[in-house]
Specification:
Elements: E1 11-14, E2 24-27, H1 31-34, H2 43-48, H3 121-128, H4 133-140, E3 171-173, E4 189-195, H5 210-225, E5 253-261, E6 269-281, H6 287-302, E7 310-312, E8 316-318, E9 323-330, E10 336-338, H7 341-348, H8 394-402, H9 412-418, H10 426-431, H11 437-440, H12 444-460
């Protein structure tokens, strides 16, 4: 799909935005609408500094899934880490290692969702096709803001090598989504962009060089895949910056947008954004520092302490491995605002200490190899590749181990399609292994239902209770953790981000 495509424009007036069940209407732009006073998208975040109710917002909803000896979805995240990530957290598949506070499931939207919004299909589609990203950029123009200011111009598009045409140096990557919650059929579509420091885009004399930039990206790709026999250094102006297996260079930036599901868009990505997520590796950590960070977290868990993160919602929260993370999310009227301090904590759990991550990140290690992996995200024709060290398609492995198509075994569409009579149809899944979109893309009806469910969360601003859309209350989830054991027997230690393409 061409990112420069023109979308229908609609301005929406939301009456009683926080009221449950209120309807949404559309109208054309008017002079009075365009003359509204300036809006500060950082105000709510600033007011939230130091105010966090859910101090364990870093524990994701998936950690509360009901598990049995026949269902284990924890293996995707908790595994035997690969050095320099020396964390071995496979035991979390079998034991709830939660603080007393986290033993209550605060993600109430999953089992007590807000009432859905009343809106017709046409108005809903017009809503998700309305741009809320450029208005965010415009509102920040010239503002005194210490955090990341989104600077990628999506309307300008990307060239044949995936580089943004706007000169921002962002590069699109096409990657295989993390299994389960990140599949479109379970709620959202997303894309990822990577930017290297300026020195990576010059020759040894400091002259801009696309050839050196492309070569450095090729090295980076090998680093994230965990290849052996890497060069000692990056090239060009980055010569002298050491190449380390599974460690991303200081200064690298990642941009990730989370979108509604547009059933008429070939890649399912809506114009409207649910979230804009940003991460930058601000400084490096040596092997001793990494090990100390893992030990410190383990000690704090044993003592029943909750995590503490440096930074602020305006500057971004920082993890112990040098990464600074920041996010934007919709307000009740659909404008993108800076996340509150508590909402930022939601990002930290998965991007801090997991056995499966590559330098606290996910997507680069799952990039489609070569040039075909440098373009705007599109699942069509993407192979359902096995994880590295495995031979079976990754989705097949997930379905087998989960006993369903999501962590809570609540995706009725996938259950009906691939679990007829309650038994996994492996032959049908294998027949589709050449095209991931045919497996994890939702039907039109499901996409619209999930969009409505998420819009209800936006309208009520109940992000503190979760941001995963559900068509109906989940039953495969624990509201409280009463037992220490999860019900999983022997933990699996083979989960990997990298794929055998």
């Amino acid at each position: 799909m061409d990112p420069r495509r023109r979308w229908p424009i609609a301005i929406f007036v939301i009456v009683s935005a926080a009221a449950a069940g209120a309807s949404i209407s559309t109208r054309r732009p008017t002079a009075s609408a365009s003359a509204r006073p300036p809006w500060d998208p950082t105000a709510e975040a600033r007011a939230s500094a130091g105010k966090t109710r859910n101090v364990e917002a870093n524990v994701p909803p998936q950690c509360y899934a009901k598990l049995t000896g026949k269902s284990n979805t924890c293996w995707t995240c908790h595994t035997a880490g690969e050095p320099p990530n020396t964390l071995v957290d496979a035991d979390l598949q079998t034991t709830y290692s939660f603080s007393d506070f986290a033993r209550e499931n605060h993600w109430r939207n999953l089992f007590d969702p807000p009432p859905q919004v009343t809106i017709g299909d046409d108005d809903l589609l017009a809503w998700i096709r309305c741009d809320n990203y450029d208005p965010l950029r415009e509102s920040l123009r010239g503002a005194a803001f210490e955090g990341f200011v989104p600077d990628l111009d999506f309307a300008a598009g990307f060239d044949e090598d995936g580089f943004a045409r706007d000169g921002s140096a962002w590069r699109a990557i096409r990657y295989k989504p993390f299994p389960g919650a990140f599949w479109p059929t379970n709620g959202s579509a997303g894309d990822v962009f990577v930017r290297l420091p300026k020195s990576f885009a010059t020759d040894e004399a400091g002259v801009p060089s696309r050839r050196h930039l492309i070569e450095n990206f090729a090295i980076l790709e090998r680093v994230a895949r965990g290849e052996a026999n890497l060069p000692a250094s990056y090239v060009g102006g980055a010569h002298g910056i050491a190449v380390e297996r599974l460690v991303l260079p200081i200064g690298i930036e990642l941009l990730h947008t989370v979108r509604y599901l547009d059933p008429d868009a070939p890649n399912l990505l809506s114009k409207r954004m649910k979230e804009v997520r940003y991460a930058k590796k601000a400084h490096g950590v040596d092997a001793w520092g990494r090990q100390r960070a893992y030990e410190k977290e383990a000690d704090e868990k044993d003592e029943g302490k909750v995590p503490v993160y440096a930074g602020s919602p305006t500057a971004g929260l920082k993890n112990a491995f040098g990464w600074q993370l920041q996010g934007w999310i919709e307000d009740a009227s659909g404008r993108l605002r800076l996340q509150t301090e508590e909402e930022h904590r939601f990002c930290m759990g998965c991007h801090t200490s997991l056995g499966v991550t590559v330098d606290s990140t996910f997507s680069l290690a799952r990039k489609v190899p070569g040039r075909d992996g440098y373009r705007w995200q599109d699942l069509r024709g993407m192979a359902d590749a096995p994880q590295r060290g495995r031979t079976e398609p990754e989705t097949l492995e997930y379905f087998r181990r989960a006993g369903g198509g999501d962590d809570f075994r609540a995706n009725d569409e996938l259950l009906g399609r691939f679990f007829p009579g309650g038994t996994l149809d492996e032959a049908r899944l294998r027949a589709l292994s050449h095209d991931l979109a045919a497996i994890v893309a939702p039907s039109r009806a499901r996409a619209l239902a999930l969009n409505r469910a998420y819009l209800a969360i936006v309208r009520t601003q109940r992000f503190a209770f979760g941001r995963d859309p559900v068509a109906r209350p989940l039953t495969g989830i624990l509201t409280t953790i009463a037992e220490e054991a999860t019900g999983v027997g022997e933990p699996l230690r083979d989960g990997r981000l990298q794929l055998h393409w």
